[in-house]
Specification:
182 residues; mainly alpha; two-stranded antiparallel ribbon; 5 strands; 53% helix
Length: 182
């Protein structure tokens, strides 16, 4: 009597490959590039507003975005990884979607600065012709971008980075074992 074994993958190898695609990767969101206007770097402008100066009150758009969206980012990451495990999106799409979402959240924080930030001084309003903090010609909000980074474990970064939660890392290890991928 011959015994015949049929090995049915059921998608575990694909899951393992996608989980490996997330290993040591993350998303940085912030002011990217070296744009400058009127001789002032957008990075400098953003830093002065985030932390304040002797003439500019702190308007921490990055810190506020992180505080308001930290839990939502974890939930969204879990949702995206779930879709990846279900075979609906790839690991690259997880990172791209997370980057685009967080970029939009930071831009929204800047656009809504009138609701949370200290108002502009009357002299600033007269100079700009607007009372909207953080928005003059929109250069700061346009400079907010995301970047997918590789080798996240080996890089120290001052930017806001999103990584899968401990729960998602545990699921990844289980999926990798099931798929025979280590």
């Amino acid at each position: 009597m011959t015994v015949k074994f049929i090995d049915k993958d059921r998608g575990y190898k694909r899951i393992g490959v996608n989980i490996k695609g997330l290993k040591d990767k993350g998303v940085k969101v912030g002011i990217m590039g070296s744009d400058s206007y009127d001789g002032v770097s957008v990075v400098d402008y953003g830093t002065w507003n985030e932390f304040g100066t002797n003439r500019i009150p702190p308007r921490p758009f990055m810190a506020i975005t992180a505080a308001r969206n930290g839990e939502k980012a974890q939930q969204f990451t879990s949702f995206l990884v779930g879709r990846m495990i279900d075979g609906k999106i790839s690991s690259d799409q997880v990172l791209k979607n997370l980057g685009e979402w967080y970029q939009a959240q930071m831009q929204l924080t800047i656009r809504n600065a009138k609701e949370w930030a200290e108002p502009n001084a009357p002299s600033t309003i007269a100079m700009k012709g607007s009372s909207s903090p953080l928005i003059d010609q929109g250069r700061l909000v346009q400079s907010i971008r995301y970047e997918i980074v590789d080798g996240l474990e080996s890089k120290a970064s001052a930017s806001t980075s999103a990584k899968p939660s401990k729960r998602m890392e545990s699921l990844a290890r289980i999926a990798s074992k099931l798929a025979g991928v280590t």
